[in-house]
UniProtKB/TrEMBL annotation:
GO terms assigned for molecular function: metal ion binding; methylmalonyl-CoA epimerase activity
Pfam families linked to this entry: Glyoxalase
VOC domain boundaries: 6-125
UniProt superkingdom: Bacteria
Name of this chain's protein: VOC family protein
PANTHER family xrefs: METHYLMALONYL-COA EPIMERASE, RING-CLEAVING DIOXYGENASE-RELATED
A single BP term in Gene Ontology: L-methylmalonyl-CoA metabolic process
Alphabetical list of InterPro entries matching this protein: Glyas_Bleomycin-R_OHBP_Dase, Glyas_Fos-R_dOase_dom, MMCE/EMCE_epimerase, VOC_core
Keywords noted in UniProt: Metal-binding
Record organism: Microbispora oryzae
């Protein structure tokens, strides 16, 4: 079991590792931690270590074929100003919003897809 003071890791299967690294580091404030060519890279933001596994990685090869597509799960990133983040990402040319802004009792959110279709939730608490 991982110690509580270490990173929490999430694995996303991606078609193009370098495109995914570019997306997360350029647009969402992640930092590249390590890279193993086109097969794998990991990026970090706060306590989250996002494992980006390309088709040649062992993580992707271990995935059953019927579960190898992007799913309904998503990472959740808290932002201070959702409208400003949406405007910034649209100005950067990202066409990958997958929902409209949804408002609920806990706050507001929008879904964004990475280049492989994995979802990222941008969330502004109420």
């Amino acid at each position: 079991m991982t110690a509580p003071d270490q990173y929490a890791s999430v694995r996303y299967l991606v078609d193009d590792v370098q495109a995914a690294v570019g997306f997360y580091t350029t647009h969402l404030g992640f930092t590249l931690n390590s890279s193993a060519g086109p097969a794998f890279a990991d990026v970090i933001r706060g306590p989250l270590r996002l494992l980006l596994s390309g088709p040649a990685s062992s993580g992707a090869r271990a995935t059953p074929a019927d579960a190898a597509v992007a799913g309904r799960n998503r990472i959740h990133l808290v932002v201070d100003d959702l409208d400003a983040e949406i405007a910034r990402l649209r100005a950067a040319g990202l066409p990958s919003f997958r929902s409209d802004v949804v408002t609920g009792p806990g706050g507001r959110q929008i879904l964004l897809a990475d280049p492989a279709g994995n979802l990222v939730e941008l969330f502004q608490p109420a």
